[in-house]
Amino acid sequence: MSTEFSILSATLLFLFVIDPFGNIPILLSVMKGVPQKRQYQIVVRDGLIGLIILVCFLFFGAEFLAVLHLETESISIAGGVVLFVIALKMIFPSPYTKEAGPVMEPFIVPISIPMLAGPSTLATLLVMVKSYPNDQQDLLISVGAAWGISVVILAMAPLLNRVLREKGLAALERLMGMLLLMMSVQMLVNGVRSLFTHTLAAL
Prior knowledge:
Layout: H1 7-18, H2 20-30, H3 36-68, H4 72-91, H5 111-116, H6 119-131, H7 136-155, H8 157-202
């Protein structure tokens, strides 16, 4: 990530963190037994709820960080570490999977939270809000674009599962993980560089 805000790079970052391809197997599991037409309605409904949560964090995230007295450098470094861990999990997924619970129509969980507006996505959004306080409109565009792409991918889950199969979805998730890993390292570099610059300027 460069020090100047880029709508495209921010959109990609949010898309990688949301990881819609990695969520497809979970979505298929919780939607088992639900008619396909109803599946689309559920994804759109819960997707809109997820978008509302993201927008609330976008516009009120700065106030939340101000209450905690967090500086931009610490947020950038901490965000880079979090994204680094997420990327490693995407590249090297756990061989153990959670057993599916009782079949029921999902509501808010797990589509709105944590698929679209999970802790990782909200933490990333807080980092971006703190790093680019004057680019809220562009951030809104990035969040909206990443959200829209993710909802479309989740809505197409049955089709993508038939076309790509398990190995294809796993390969896509690992590719997204590699790209996210590089972006997380750049975020760490930016945070450390800014920290040293401010430290030297204060001397």
